[in-house]
């Protein structure tokens, strides 16, 4: 059995060059062929090395993640085992971490929508937000997903959205930014624009998509790791020398995750992703958040009333990995009648991660993007997440991450969320309640 892994290697020139090239796509490709790799690891030569600092699980600084300063790098490789239980913890002293499959949190296709995007806009009081200039102007929103199709968005919203193609990210061989097949990522972009129509999109297609209208299949966590390294590099230089900031803020939408623990390393393995806050991807997510990026993740679709089949009947502890990081805002879903959708994953999170997830609830299962057909809803916590990301982008129009860091903004969104009927404090269904962007904005003085 050939198992993909993330291997941690000490700094060496081929790894530094690979990482530098990945951050500077205009440079000639750099090969990993001369990298020193332990016997038993089959290196994926197509995967650019990712600097991870000391790699000890301690908090890394931005400086320690620069390719020429990083002590360790993550590379993608494969190991041969007879059984998943035999995956080694390390090879010649080099730690191995899980590289599980990841998938979009879309579900319940073919079911009728509840309300429309117009209803969502009304519930979020976008007219009042727009009247105060809270429309996402100058804010970058990264859609980490299957890719964006700008032409479809233009058809649906009546104007061409803003896209920063130069700072978008794409794996080798993928379409140009904004020219991806109409699919899950296009849905997410549309849902962001409900509340932040003037935000600038970054197209970050980490998930593989099929032909237009087809089912999305997912990708691997290693690809998301590369994309987050790109976003960190982009955001670290977002303030142009001699001028003002290139963007006021960076919001990162992640409507994906893991449906079942069987997708990951077996329980007890120290390199497992889903319950390990020191996994390289979760650690890099924390660095991005500390740098001032607002990172949102969907909670998942393993709710007790209507769990997705990929949950395999597991409905407890299903919010896991970076989706359960204390540094991100984790979204549950409700319909436009403020009723929690039955598939929305409930808290608490998987053991070993921050327990009080989800954080808040946003709207889903409404007729919006029509990415999957003229009558198909934008569904799953996949839709709730970008709806909330648009709300964050709208607030960031006038509230900088320097003045109010991500943790402070998320706390304000939680404090101003509308409690569900009978709710008192945090609960496992709605988190702190249903998002109330207007109240949060006013509480922050905008």
Automatic annotation (TrEMBL):
<keyword id="KW-0378">Hydrolase</keyword>
<dbReference type="InterPro" id="IPR023828">
    <property type="entry name" value="Peptidase_S8_Ser-AS"/>
</dbReference>
<dbReference type="Pfam" id="PF00082">
    <property type="entry name" value="Peptidase_S8"/>
</dbReference>
<feature type="active site" description="Charge relay system">
    <location>
        <position position="184"/>
    </location>
</feature>
<dbReference type="InterPro" id="IPR036852">
    <property type="entry name" value="Peptidase_S8/S53_dom_sf"/>
</dbReference>
<feature type="active site" description="Charge relay system">
    <location>
        <position position="145"/>
    </location>
</feature>
<dbReference type="InterPro" id="IPR015500">
    <property type="entry name" value="Peptidase_S8_subtilisin-rel"/>
</dbReference>
<keyword id="KW-0720">Serine protease</keyword>
<comment type="similarity">
    <text>Belongs to the peptidase S8 family.</text>
</comment>
<protein>
    <submittedName>
        <fullName>S8/S53 family peptidase</fullName>
        <ecNumber>3.4.-.-</ecNumber>
    </submittedName>
</protein>
<dbReference type="InterPro" id="IPR023827">
    <property type="entry name" value="Peptidase_S8_Asp-AS"/>
</dbReference>
<keyword id="KW-0645">Protease</keyword>
<dbReference type="GO" id="GO:0016787">
    <property type="term" value="F:hydrolase activity"/>
</dbReference>
<feature type="domain" description="Peptidase S8/S53">
    <location>
        <begin position="136"/>
        <end position="433"/>
    </location>
</feature>
<dbReference type="InterPro" id="IPR000209">
    <property type="entry name" value="Peptidase_S8/S53_dom"/>
</dbReference>
<feature type="active site" description="Charge relay system">
    <location>
        <position position="382"/>
    </location>
</feature>
């Amino acid at each position: 059995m050939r198992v993909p892994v993330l291997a941690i290697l000490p700094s060496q020139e081929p790894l530094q060059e690979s990482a530098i090239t990945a951050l500077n796509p205009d440079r000639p490709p750099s090969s990993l062929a001369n990298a020193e790799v332990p016997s038993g690891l089959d290196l994926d030569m197509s995967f650019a090395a990712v600097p991870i600092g000391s790699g000890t699980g301690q908090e890394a600084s931005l400086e320690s993640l620069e390719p020429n300063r990083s002590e360790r790098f993550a590379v993608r490789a494969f190991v041969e085992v007879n059984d998943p239980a035999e995956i080694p913890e390390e090879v010649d002293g080099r730690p191995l971490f899980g590289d599980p499959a990841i998938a979009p949190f879309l579900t319940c296709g073919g079911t009728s929508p509840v309300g429309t995007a117009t209803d969502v806009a009304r519930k979020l009081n976008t007219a009042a937000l727009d009247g105060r200039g809270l429309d996402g102007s100058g804010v970058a929103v990264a859609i980490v997903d299957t890719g964006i199709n700008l032409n479809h968005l233009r058809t649906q919203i009546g104007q061409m959205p803003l896209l920063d193609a130069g700072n978008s990210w794409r794996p080798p061989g993928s379409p140009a930014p904004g020219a991806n097949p109409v699919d899950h990522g296009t849905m997410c972009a549309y849902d962001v624009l409900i509340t932040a129509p003037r935000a600038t999109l970054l197209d970050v297609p980490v998930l593989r998509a099929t032909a237009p209208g087809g089912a999305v299949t997912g990708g691997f966590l290693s690809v998301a790791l590369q994309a987050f390294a790109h976003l960190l590099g982009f955001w670290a230089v977002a303030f142009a020398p001699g001028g003002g900031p290139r963007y006021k803020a960076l919001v990162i939408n992640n409507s994906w995750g893991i449906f079942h623990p069987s997708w990951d390393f077996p329980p007890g393995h120290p390199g497992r992703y889903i319950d390990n806050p020191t996994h390289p991807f979760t650690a890099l997510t924390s660095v991005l958040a500390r740098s001032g990026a607002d990172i949102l993740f969907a909670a998942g679709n393993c709710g007790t009333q209507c769990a997705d089949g990929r949950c395999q009947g597991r409905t407890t502890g299903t919010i896991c990995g970076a989706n359960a990081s204390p540094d991100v805002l984790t979204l549950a879903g409700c319909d436009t009648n403020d009723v929690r959708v039955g598939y929305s994953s409930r808290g608490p999170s998987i053991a070993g991660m921050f327990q009080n997830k989800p954080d808040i609830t946003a709207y889903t299962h409404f007729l919006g993007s029509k990415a999957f057909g003229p009558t198909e809803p934008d569904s799953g916590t996949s839709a709730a997440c970008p709806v909330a990301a648009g709300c964050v982008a709208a607030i960031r129009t006038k509230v900088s991450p320097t003045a109010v860091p991500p943790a402070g903004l998320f706390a304000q969104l939680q404090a101003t969320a509308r409690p569900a009927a009978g709710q008192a404090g945090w609960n496992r269904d709605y988190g702190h309640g249903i998002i109330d962007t207007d109240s949060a904005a006013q509480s922050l003085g905008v």
